[in-house]
Amino acid sequence: MDAEVPRPGDGGDGGGSSAPHSFAVGYRPHTGDMMVYGGGMMTLIGVLAAVVHGSPVFFILSIVGSLCALYFYPTLNLRAPQLGADTNGIFIARFGTIRWEEIADIQVQHRALRTMRLATLIVRTKRPLKEAIAVPDRIGLVGRLSAANARRKGGAIHVTLHTLTLPPDSIGRRLHALQAAA
Question: Are residues 94 and 165 in the same domain?
Answer without folding.
Answer: yes
